[in-house]
Amino acid sequence: MGFSKNFVWGVATSTYQIEGTASDSGKGMNIWDIYTKEPGNVFEGHTGEIACDHYHRFREDIAVMKEMGIKAYRFSIDWSRVLPEGKGRINEAGVKFYNNLIDALIEAGIEPYITLYHWELPYELYKRGGWMNPEMVRWFGDYAMLVAKRFSDRVKYFFTLNEPQCFVGLGFLTGEHAPGIKAPMRDTFEMAHNALKAHGYAVQMLRQYGKQPLVIGYAPTCSMCYPETEKPEDIEAARKMLFSMQDDDRNWTWNVAWWSDPVLLGHYPEEGIKLYEKFLPKITDEDMKLISEPIDIYGQNIYNGKCIRMGTDGQPEIVERYKGFPKTALNWPVTPECLYWGPKFLYERYKKPIYITENGLSCHDKVSLDGKVHDSDRIDFLARYLKELKRAAGEIELRGYFHWSLMDNFEWARGYSERFGLLFVDYQTQERIWKDSAYWYRNVILTNGENL
Ligand code: NOJ
């Protein structure tokens, strides 16, 4: 058994990473527009001002996706492009941009999947406290309502938040991402709680104002856990570790259960409540009801995982990686097993159809003398990972896979120094060049993974 015949083969991007911020577009500022302008925040002072200029080149990009056989495109909306102040006034030019994008996708036979929030907090809302302000719940819901009203006649699939672990953890604990703050622990739990409530309210708004029955999900992340062997005790150890909490405080967001149990199971994990008790805001039954507003699909961004075995003391332990363990250009470990065990454990716990909303890697890609981009590392990585995913597809309800990313783009604090794309982007000319992996992925799609 392999991938179902309706399996969704897609690619993913996000607004700030590809669009460019064109000053004539009526867009308001978000925290990344501000953060990137400050020297020292981003590698070599790179900004998303031009990025891949997708704002002007989306038609060409969609034509390429079509040629590649891409079935679905997961992209995000810049909240401040449609609501420059984050609320109130609508920027019709921004709405038009996304309308044109959606129309062009549909015309090309590519299913649009919208992510509402891929870290683009409108600066005006940030000034009012951003995620610390309980009003964010309503502001995000109102934004979701606008999106539903304007786009859901043609768009059926939505994800609310992308990687809350990162926008709270990297944005407000380590300060490596916009807005670059090292907030007190208590504040970060409050932000997380507000973000989860905002998710719930957005789900309600999408349902209420959706112009057709919508399919709504969520796209968190985390490193997965996989067992060292298939002995039941190692499997149990990996499962237990995956859903456990970090006891390193300043790294607390890096877990699955704190972010997904409330949404899918209606409560925070017991272990976390105990561990973080002193930092927690007031959590009411009403909050939990809102947070657990039913969703239809579960998305998870998966890049790598930790190998786990059952220790002799009956506790799960991390198996140390051997010297010279394979890694990507970004030094992330290559652990294909996470694409079998990750979705499997998540499906068992949350019982929702699963999408891998992101997976991919950064390589040291360059244009060779023959004018081509030979990214054999990416092909090798994807072949290994997708084989594991194929195994999972035979056992659980797995709906789709979105490769990160369609094209090289602005990798946050690392600017343009990392290349995650199937398409190579020459940032001097904006030329897109098919990497070898793009041809390879086209073939995977064409054969529905039979060739894996
Ligand atoms: C996670 C994020 O959602 C995306 O924005 C980022 O570029 C990729 N993973 C790679 O780091």
Put the structure in a nutshell.
The protein is α/β, with parallel strands linked by helices and 452 residues long. The protein has 16 helices and 13 strands.
Note the main attributes of this structure:
452 residues; TIM Barrel; alpha/beta; 38% helix; binds 1-deoxynojirimycin; 3-stranded mixed beta sheet; 8-stranded parallel beta sheet; 16 helices
Please, could you describe this protein's structure?
- The protein has 452 residues and is an alpha/beta fold.
- The protein has one domain (8-447): TIM Barrel (Alpha-Beta Barrel), CATH 3.20.20.80.
- It has helices at 15-18, 31-35, 54-68, 79-82, 92-107, 123-127, 136-151, 164-172, 185-209, 232-242, 257-265, 270-275, 285-291, 338-350, 376-393, 436-446; strands spanning 8-12, 72-76, 111-117, 157-162, 215-219, 224-227, 298-301, 305-310, 316-318, 354-358, 398-404, 423-426, 431-434.
- The protein has an eight-stranded parallel sheet. A three-stranded mixed sheet has the order 6-8-9. It has a two-stranded antiparallel sheet with strand order 12-13.
- Helix 8 packs antiparallel against helix 9.
- The structure holds 1-deoxynojirimycin (NOJ).
- 1-deoxynojirimycin is lined by residues 14, 17, 162-163, 301, 358, 404, 411, 420.
Secondary structural class: alpha/beta
Bound molecules: 1-deoxynojirimycin
CATH third-level topology = TIM Barrel
The CATH architecture designation is Alpha-Beta Barrel
Q: Termini separation (Å)? A: 12 Å
The Rg value, from CA coordinates, equals 21 Å
Shape: globular
CATH class: Alpha Beta
Tell me the count of domains.
1
The secondary-structure element order is EHHHEHHEHHEHHEEHHHHEEEHEHEEEH
